[in-house]
């Protein structure tokens, strides 16, 4: 049986070149993935090596004189509390801003707002810290005093109110993580199937009902991914926290006073320049805890996204 006629321009050399290009691209992609894993492993190994003296030292040799766990645990608590405040406040704002830009605002206004939101990501964290310390913290004092007066029976609100409180720090962090969360949500909302949205509107749904029926179910995994990116930024923020927060080595649920636990990143930034010997190893050990905390947060986020993906409508 004779072979089928060959199409013009379809030569064996072209096919071989395509296969070689695919092989090169696959090799480069594999190398990039392996490089990321190697770098991650090397960072973890370096932190563990530098933190080993503090991990094996006697409690009285560690900064504070009461052991590594006693030193790091308040910092870990403060890190989680400030990041959670930022996440709880920032996530609804990011979703609302992204929905307004993608489905409600006129095109010109949406473009301008998107540009402004993206521009916020370029503002240095030290600027946010100075603004929070000199402007936002004093401005929030009446609100904090009102929370203490009317909601003082809740353990979160206690006095005396201070512009250097955990609440001020968490709200500034919420503003800092807005750009990245809004950008992710906006792109996900814009990728929602247009036919689903048009079908919902054709059946008589209002615009908000259309968003509920066609946009938000599709974007669930993207919203979670954006929230976890923002949480990772809040967990590792340094300068803004170091400038605003009045830190102390204690556990307290109160977020409106100056008696706050510090954060790991802020403590490293403040203490590292003047530290030496075992103090450096102690700070690196706290950095190792922060490294694994962010790793666990991202692993948890990937697990949630993988569970949601089959119901998102993306496939």
Automatic annotation (TrEMBL):
A Pfam family this chain is assigned to: BPD_transp_1
CDD domains attached to this UniProt entry: TM_PBP2 (cd06261)
Lineage top rank: taxon: Bacteria
Localization terms from the record: Cell membrane
UniProt keyword S-adenosyl-L-methionine, yes or no: no
ABC transmembrane type-1 domain span: 76-301
Protein's membrane topology: Multi-pass membrane protein
Nucleus listed as a keyword: no
Keywords on record: Cell membrane, Membrane, Phosphate transport, Transmembrane, Transmembrane helix, Transport
TM regions (residue ranges): 23-51, 71-101, 113-134, 165-184, 230-251, 283-305
Homology family: Belongs to the binding-protein-dependent transport system permease family. CysTW subfamily.
Job of this protein: Part of the binding-protein-dependent transport system for phosphate; probably responsible for the translocation of the substrate across the membrane.
NCBIfam families to which the protein is assigned, alphabetical: phosphate_pstC
Protein known as: Phosphate transport system permease protein
